[in-house]
Design brief:
70% of the residues lie in helices and 0% in strands. The chain is mostly helical. Helix 2 runs antiparallel to helix 3 (51-76).
């Protein structure tokens, strides 16, 4: 009963917050609802017995959302003084989301440790979920795994190109000029009279 109740609670919160990600007009609210969606999906994975997938979802996706939000803030050049002035109006909203996340964690923990959660691994041997995922990921889906890495590399290069700005008055390092200079360009011989130093 506890597992079923936890499943329906997590599924309802995940679907509702996913809809609010799209329907919310405030980008800050959208990011918060997206984090709630990821936490709810991680709770569903945990109920299925896929602890590694739940941990991966929280660590990678929630962390990536936070980094993406910081990246957008840096790109938009947000006025932090104006943002801090309306900080108190977001406290009730953040408190409600924190209570929802806490309730989800308590329900999932109780269902996982005290209920009979179905395990993802359906095999009779002693291999864990992590070993099973690794076997499938690096054998049957190795090409798609490498293609995903290539897509992420292209996205990283695109982000660097988009944020690269040329500013006037800023000295830049030119590696080609440094490497191609000769000894005569790099060293200046000065003949000083005896007993006199450089003033």
């Amino acid at each position: 009963m506890l597992v079923t109740l936890s499943f329906y609670l997590l599924a309802f919160v995940a679907i509702s917050s996913a809809l609010m990600v799209v329907m919310s007009r405030n980008p800050v609210h959208s990011v918060m609802f997206l984090i709630v969606t990821f936490f709810s999906a991680a709770g569903l994975f945990l109920l299925m017995g896929a602890e590694f997938l739940a941990l991966l979802l929280v660590m990678v996706y929630v962390g990536a959302v936070a980094v993406l939000f910081l990246f957008v803030v840096m790109m938009l050049d947000v006025d932090f003084v104006e943002l801090k002035q309306g900080f108190l109006q977001y406290l009730p909203f953040g408190f409600v989301l924190a209570v929802i996340l806490l309730a989800e964690m308590v329900m999932v923990g109780a269902a996982y440790f005290f209920g009979e959660s179905e395990k993802l691994a359906i095999y009779n041997d002693e291999k864990s979920n992590l070993e099973r995922i690794g076997e499938v990921l690096y054998t049957d889906y190795a090409f798609f795994f490498e293609a995903a890495g290539l897509v992420l590399l292209i996205a990283l290069i695109g982000a660097v190109v988009l944020t690269l700005r040329t500013r006037e008055g800023v000295r830049k390092q030119d590696a080609h000029t440094q490497i191609s200079r000769t000894r005569d360009e790099a060293i200046e011989m000065v003949d000083l009279p005896s007993g006199e130093g450089v003033g």
